[in-house]
Structures are given as C-alpha cells and as structure tokens.
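In response to the reviewer comment on reproducibility (Comment 2.3), we provide here a single inverse folding case reported in full, input and output, so that an independent group could reproduce the run without further information from us. The structure tokens appear first.
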C-alpha cells in the first residue's frame, strides 16, 4: 500500500518540470511542506509491520531525497525567472530576426553579362586558375621578353615544367587556348573567372580581380561582327542609346586590336568626375584573333578567323553601382554587400 503510493509519487516527481515560480512553490508545499506528502508517508510508516519497515525504510529515504533534490535543482534553474515577470518567458517579445543572404555584386553582374551573351549563342567555358606559361602567354603570341611575363605582373608558382613556368593566370584568355586546343571550330564562348596580377592593393588596383573574356571563331568572322556583338552587349547592359567607340590598341594575341569606350553611364557624356570630364569610359579590350594564336592551337588560320574580347567585372560593376573602391568587393563587409540585394536578382 505504502510502496504503491511511493511508486506513484516518484513518477509524479520525475515528470515534474517547471520554470514557473508559483508552481514550484506548490510543489514544495505538496511534497515537502509541514502537512505535505512526505510528512504523511513518514507518519504512515510508523504503523507498518516490522518486516515492512526493514524494506521500506530505505525506499522512503530515497523518495524524500528525490523530492528535495528535484525542488533544489528546479529552484536553481528558476533564479533568472524570478527576476523577470511571471514565468520569465515574455511571449510578447519579438523573436530574433534572421537575415536572408544576398548575392555578391560581382556575382550579380557576372550573371547579367553571361545572360546577355547566352542570348547571342555564347556558352560558358571555364579553366584552371593555376596555369602554365604556354596557355597563359606563349600560345597567345606573347614574345619571350614581353614585360607582362615579368615578376612584376605575374605571380609565379614554380619554374620550368612541360609547358613552361607555372603561375596564377593573369587573364582568362588561357581558357580560350584550352578550348581551341580541345575542339574544332566554330567556337562561341565566354570565359568568366578570377585572375591574378601582382599589383599593390589600393582603391583602384587589386592583386586579383574577375574577368569575362569572349571568343568567336568561325569561317569569315569579321571586325564588323565584333562591333555588332559588343554594341548589342552594351545596349543590353547599360540601356538603349549608350554610345560606343573603338580606339586602336595593342594586345599580343589580337590583330588589329582595340579598346572600347562607352558614353559615361553617370553623366551620359556631359562630363563628370568618373569619366574625367571626357564623356567616355573604357570598358574592354578586343580584337581579331591573331592568326599565330589560331595556328598555335591547331586551327587553320587560312580557313578560320575570329574575334576576342575581355573585360573586368569589377569595372563593369563600378559603372553600374558607382562603387569607387575596389577593395570593397573582397572585404565581405555585410553592410556593403546587403545594398545589392535587390539591385539585380
Ligand atoms: N586578355 C586581355 C586582358 O587581360 C583582354 C583581352 C581579351 C583583350 C581578348 C583583347 C582580346 O586584359
């Protein structure tokens, strides 16, 4: 009889759990109070038979200890609750907000560029960031003594090797070489990716940045195709009416070569600080693929011709978002990154 009661109350005590101060006090009164259950049970114990006393004595003591320990541990856990109102849980407090991540502005711009060229049938090609001399320089017609191979611009990793020195690629033109070596014309692809140049970090230069280069090789591809492709790209990216102009330039891997300017996206050509009051800003380099490059990649330069272009994603993003300091792109300051959440999705 007494044993049954103890078993039942033991279950009740074990199941008991609260952070509410009043309930805990009721528990204390019910079990440990001067008129409580433990007192009752001890009273009852006095009148049981001597054999039962022997077995029950220990059970009874353990039961009492259990009730006291439970009360103590719950009380310690409720110390915080006692200082705040009622249960210590204020259900009216707002929950902790959680933030939805945003895309990096460079990722947004990269995606926009890729989408525009996709519409023209360009596919995306990728290649390694650690490159050999052949793919980064030699196949692209860089003369042996060209200053771009110099330690100044290139992060070299290892001297020598089957295809020359190993270095971090300085442009994604290396992917064009890999693509042409691996396949047969026609090629129509863009190559987005990270590139590295050994430059001191400042607001206007960084030791790494991102490029999108493009390549189109087929029979009778002309400079007119190049101009029209890039003109379409600029209208899509910066809006109808954006003007373009081509200035003669030099790259070892293209002949003829040009740099392309667009009418300033900020002042629309009227003159401002960004365009240094010229009304124009440069956005990319381009040209007709040098026949030497085609031949280096095993393509018949008598049959095929092509154009190539390359731009820095940071530059395109600067013009789109007016970001003046390049370092912001790689510092991962959430206050900066958050601003571009809904600029382009
Ligand atoms: N590879 C050049 C660079 O890194 C860009 C470019 C690509 C120029 C293709 C012309 C043609 O600056």
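Designed residues, in position order:
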């Amino acid at each position: 009889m007494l044993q049954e009661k103890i078993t039942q109350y033991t279950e009740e005590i074990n199941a008991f759990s609260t952070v509410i101060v009043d309930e805990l006090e009721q528990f204390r009164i019910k079990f440990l109070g001067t008129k409580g259950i433990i007192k009752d049970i001890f009273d009852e114990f006095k009148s049981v038979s001597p054999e039962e006393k022997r077995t029950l004595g220990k059970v009874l003591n353990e039961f009492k200890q259990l009730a006291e320990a439970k009360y103590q541990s719950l009380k310690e856990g409720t110390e915080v609750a006692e200082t705040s109102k009622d249960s210590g849980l204020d259900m009216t407090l707002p929950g902790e907000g959680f933030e939805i991540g945003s895309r990096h502005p460079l990722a947004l711009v990269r995606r926009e560029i890729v989408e525009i060229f996709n519409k023209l049938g360009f596919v995306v090609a990728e290649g390694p960031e650690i490159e050999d001399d052949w793919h980064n320089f030699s196949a692209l017609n860089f003369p042996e003594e060209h200053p771009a191979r110099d330690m100044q611009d290139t992060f070299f990793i290892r001297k020598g090797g089957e295809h020359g020195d190993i270095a971090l690629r300085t442009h994604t033109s290396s992917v064009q070489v890999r693509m042409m070596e691996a396949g047969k014309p026609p090629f129509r692809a863009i190559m987005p990716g990270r590139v590295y140049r050994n430059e001191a970090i400042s607001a206007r230069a960084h030791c790494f940045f991102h490029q999108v280069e493009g390549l189109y090789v087929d029979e009778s591809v002309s400079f007119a195709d190049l101009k029209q492709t890039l003109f379409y790209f600029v209208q899509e990216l910066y809006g109808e009416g954006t003007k373009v102009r081509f200035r003669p330039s030099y790259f070892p891997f293209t002949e003829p070569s040009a740099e392309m300017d667009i009418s300033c996206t900020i002042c629309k050509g009227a003159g401002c600080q960004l365009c240094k009051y010229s009304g124009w800003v440069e956005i990319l380099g381009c040209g007709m693929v040098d026949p030497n490059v085609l031949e280096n990649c095993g393509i018949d330069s008598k049959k095929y011709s092509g154009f190539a272009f390359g731009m820095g994603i940071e530059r395109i993003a600067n013009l789109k978002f007016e970001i003046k300091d390049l370092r912001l792109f790689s510092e991962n300051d959430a206050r900066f990154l958050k601003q571009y959440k809904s600029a382009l999705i």
